[in-house]
TrEMBL record:
Signal peptide (UniProt feature, chain positions): 1-21
Family the UniProt entry places it in: Belongs to the serpin family.
InterPro entries: Serpin_CS, Serpin_dom, Serpin_fam, Serpin_sf, Serpin_sf_1, Serpin_sf_2
Identification of the protein by name: Alpha-1-antitrypsin homolog
Gene: LOC115810091
Serpin domain mapped to chain residues: 69-427
Cellular-component GO terms for this entry: extracellular space
High-level lineage: Eukaryota, Metazoa, Chordata, Craniata, Vertebrata
GO molecular function, one term: serine-type endopeptidase inhibitor activity
Entry keywords, A to Z: Glycoprotein, Signal
Length: 430
């Protein structure tokens, strides 16, 4: 269904778990002497089974797409998002919340699945889907770097249920390490160091405040580095105006290249679609609304519309100009997720007894940060999220100039997964 899509980025999701009573004194059994212990087969090792991998991955992709567009609309509606860039990794958030759902029961579990658009799926389908998704993303690339995984940072003396640890290990490739949550500043440094390592120092300061009652943090990360199939010549990069809105313009470094591109001009829906291919079976999909039509195009976003645009692509040689930029975006997602329907997990009624039967646990906050860098050679991106759980036809020759706000999706081809999406309103905003 999808042709080449661009995917170049890094993203992680952390879930912090704290308890309302003092943690048990016995040590959990999963920590090794070397502090970090991998709980799944190594990347270079043969996966236990390839059979059904594509089917399982593709079962998740339409649901993950629905979640991605729903979350985008929520983030876009935030007062702080007005006139600003938006960028996040929906699949990393989905995976982290699915990891959390391993330990959730009853209403808490059903609300998580409802928000993730998984209500029509069985937990086994979701978990096996991520098992194979991780395998596909981590085992099939030579031309670019793409790594995705999860971890458990556990307080000394807190012992999660064996089944939760085993399922996290089997389905989500979870590693485990001890963090000194009795000293919040120390724990924050330890976790930030871990995230920085997984994201090649693109995310270094995600965790700032750690609740003193935190007993566990679940971390999911995604990292991708790719090169343009046909690089832009740095000698052809020039200064030009980018029109933030009808009254505001900023000066940017504009990359330029003549080439053969896939594109589609949807006149009825005021949108120009452009594919920028990368090496390694990936591309960036650009959605450039006509002037003044951003809201209308945002209202169209759905997996069905994206498929229609992709299936309508034409191929022609023409010049393209793309801004060279770096950006980051940070979000507190607790309120947003509750507005979307994940309420119980943040309340005293939370049922996370699948993680611990001896401690009452609840989610306290969810933080997310994503970083994107686009230049003549390719793209880099990184992201991380923390979730704390506390006690409780023939067209004329054309030119596509991305000199006004545009949308982008970063999609992995073989699994049809939206890794990242966003809106570039001002390329000069860091």
């Amino acid at each position: 269904m999808w042709d080449k899509f661009f995917c170049y980025l890094t993203f992680g999701l952390l879930l912090v778990i704290a308890c309302a009573a003092a943690p048990a004194s016995n040590d959990h059994c999963i920590h090794s002497a070397d502090h970090h212990k991998h709980l799944h087969h190594a990347k270079e090792e043969h996966h236990p089974s390839h059979e059904g991998a594509h089917q399982d991955c593709h079962l998740l992709s339409p649901h993950n797409a629905d979640f991605a567009f729903s979350l985008y609309r929520k983030l876009n509606a935030l007062p702080d998002s007005k006139g600003k860039n938006i960028f996040f990794s929906p699949v990393s958030i989905s995976m982290a919340l699915s990891l959390l759902a391993l330990g959730a029961k009853e209403q808490t579990h059903s609300e998580i699945y409802r928000v993730l658009e998984y209500s029509n799926l069985q937990p086994a389908q979701v978990n096996e889907g991520y098992e194979h998704l991780l395998h596909m993303l981590n085992h099939s690339r030579d031309a670019f770097q793409l790594e995705m995984g999860s971890s458990l940072a556990i307080r000394q003396g807190f012992k999660p249920l064996d089944k939760f640890l085993q399922d996290a290990q089997h389905y989500y490739q979870s590693e485990a390490f001890t963090a000194d949550f009795s000293k919040p500043d120390v724990a924050a440094q330890e976790i930030n160091k871990y995230i920085a390592k997984k994201t090649e120092d693109m995310i270094t300061d995600l965790v700032k405040d750690v609740d003193k009652d935190t007993v566990m943090m679940l971390i999911s990360y995604l990292f991708f580095r790719g090169k343009w199939e046909k690089p832009f010549d740095a000698k052809r990069t020039y200064k030009d105006d980018f029109h933030v809105d009808e009254n505001t313009k900023v000066t940017v470094d504009m990359m330029s290249r003549n080439g053969l591109y896939q594109y589609y001009i949807d006149q009825a829906n005021h949108t120009t679609v452009l594919m920028l291919p990368y090496k390694g079976n990936a591309s960036m999909m650009i959605l450039l609304p006509d002037e003044g039509k951003m809201q209308e195009v945002e209202g169209l976003l759905s997996k069905e519309q994206i498929k229609h645009w992709h299936d309508s692509l034409l191929r022609e040689r023409f010049p393209v100009t793309v801004p060279k930029f770096s950006m980051s975006a940070t979000y507190s997602l607790a309120d947003t997720l509750q507005e979307m329907g994940m309420v119980n997990a943040f309340s005293q009624s939370a049922d996370l007894s699948g993680i611990s039967e001896s401690h009452k646990l609840m989610v306290s906050k969810v933080e997310h940060k994503a970083v994107l860098k686009v230049d003549e050679r390719g793209t880099e991106a990184a992201a991380a999220t923390t979730v704390e759980i506390v006690l409780m036809s023939a067209l004329p020759r054309l030119r596509i100039n991305l000199n006004r706000p545009f949308l982008l999706l970063i999609v992995e081809d073989s699994t049809k997964t939206i890794l990242f999406m966003g809106k570039i309103t001002d390329p000069t905003a860091v």
